[in-house]
Amino acid sequence: MNFLTYRFKRIFKHSLINLVIFSSAILFANNAFAEAKITPFTELSPEIQEVLSPFADSWEQIEPRRQQMLIRFSQDADPEIRQRIKRHASHWKSLPIKERKKVRKAMRKFDKLPAHKREKLRKRWRDMPAEKRRKIHGAFDTFEQLPEERRREIREKVRNMSPEERREFLKEIAQQSTQSTTEAGEEKSQP
Question: To 10 degrees, what angle do helices 148-159 and 130-145 make?
Answer without folding.
Answer: 120
